[in-house]
TrEMBL record:
This is Ubiquinol-cytochrome c chaperone domain-containing protein. Keywords: Membrane, Transmembrane, Transmembrane helix. GO terms for cellular component: Cbp3p-Cbp6 complex; mitochondrial membrane; mitochondrial ribosome. Belongs to the CBP3 family. It holds the Pfam family Ubiq_cyt_C_chap. One of its GO terms (biological process) is protein stabilization. The keyword Ribonucleoprotein does not apply. It comes from Pichia membranifaciens NRRL Y-2026. The chain crosses the membrane at residues 155-173. GO terms for molecular function: mRNA binding; ribosome binding. Residues 148-291 form the Ubiquinol-cytochrome c chaperone domain.
Amino acid sequence: MLSTAARQAHILAKSRVPAANFGLAARRFASSQVQNEASKEDKATAVPSPEDLAKASHLPHISNVEMPNKDINLKNKLEKPDYEKEGYQVPEWKKAFGETFVSLFHIDMDNVRAGTIGGSKYYYMCKDQGLQFTDEELSETAVFWYDTLGLPRTFAMWFQITTLHVWLLFVRMRAMPFKMGKNYQQKLVDKLFKDIEMRLSEEMNVLSGQIRDSYMKDFHSQMLGMIFSLDEAFAQKSDDVLAAAVWRNVFNGDKNIDIVKLEAVVRYIRMQLYVLDSISDRAFGFGDFEFVGPNETVDLLTAEDKAQLLKMTKMKFEPEDGKTLPSQKSKLSLDE
């Protein structure tokens, strides 16, 4: 589990809209929790979501025309693979063949999942948070970053938003067994820079390999600097240091920063850390995590809630008949 830094989320208390997808079992658990309406007192004292908090502010929108263009061919390249799309079902014959192959050759599925989950699903989740193109409607998450917070709609800003979410996943990956966590991190970073290189070429029309390499080095340096500053805040368990890191890296050190909007991003980060701290290695390693939306808040889990969540997680990953499919075997813990 993560350090107690993730539990410094007093800003989340008394909210009655559990929004985190802790996995399928936890989603059902969260859904059952919202059946009872909050009392009038709770409603009066409920903490607003990051988006609602930011909307109460008045920082002017920063217009910027430096947005990527997208044609049909590029759109196809940027889309998620079929197996990441909602509702996709693997044919039964492929499932049977895959299980036989894994069993016969003793495939390390934890290693495989580092690529399919860390380097695919989790990367697309990070990438999608601030993804935007000219003349296209913004997603709900992108609206928060560009419209509500007023950040410039540029390629560089997309990279900063993506890197912020990559760091959030890094925090959780470091809490996994060392080799597995490093593998997940490496696959995530590899996919990030492979995608950036493709987007520079296809979207931004940077056709010179030398110029692309120069941009790639700059993005790499920015990523290291941002991760270092966020790590410092996490290690010190300080919202002040975290706010300073966000101010430098997300708001580009704007001297006219609206503090309310800065607080909204800090609150957003603390929400994600709390959710990441609340799921087991097994659930996280299998991709049973989604970022909490900026328009949502999270209930703090009681001891009973945590016990119920653990029970549901074990029900999902430990079949009652005790027979685990070869592809579902893992050394990752269900308890932490």
